[in-house]
# Entry
Amino acid sequence: MKFANSSFFTLITLCILTFSTITASAQQASRSKVIDLAADSAFDQIASSLHKNGYFLANLDRASGFIQVQIVTKYTKKMLSAKSGARRTLNFLVKPNGKAKAQINLNIFLEERFFGGDIHNRSYYYAEKELLEDPTEYQRVWEELAKSMDDPTSEET
# Structure
C-alpha cells in the first residue's frame, strides 16, 4: 500500500511541476517577439507608433535599443477607496536577430496611484506593485503595436 501512495504522490508532483513549467514558458514567450525588420528600423517604427498611440516617451537610447514609455489610466471612483489610477511603464529592448530581423523584449511594470491627503490638502502618490505577468496585457500591447506599425493610414504626411 505504501508503494501505491508513493507512486500517486510522485505522479501528482510530476503533473504539478510539468504544468507550472508550461505555464511559465507560455507567459515568458508572450514577452518577446521577433519581427522581419532590421533593428534600427524597428526601433524607429516602435518609438513612432508608441508616440502616436499616446504613450509618454520617458527614455529612448538608440545605441542600446532601449525604449521606455509610460501611460496613465484612471480608475472609476469607488466609495472609500484610496486608489485613483495606475501608471504602466513599458520597457522595450530592440536587438538585432540575424540580418534583417529584430528581437523585441518587453517588460511591463505597474504602479498604482493612491490618494494620500485630506479633502482640503490633496496629495497623491504612486506605489510600485510588480512586474506584470499576465500574458493578456502583453498580447494587447503587441496587437496595438502591430496594428499601428502596419496601418498605412497612421503614417503622417
Observations:
- Strands lie at 32-35, 56-61, 66-74, 83-96, 102-115, 124-131.
- The longest strand covers residues 83-96.
- The radius of gyration is 21 Å.
- Residues 32-154 form a domain with the Alpha-D-Glucose-1,6-Bisphosphate; Chain A, domain 4 fold (CATH 3.30.530.50).
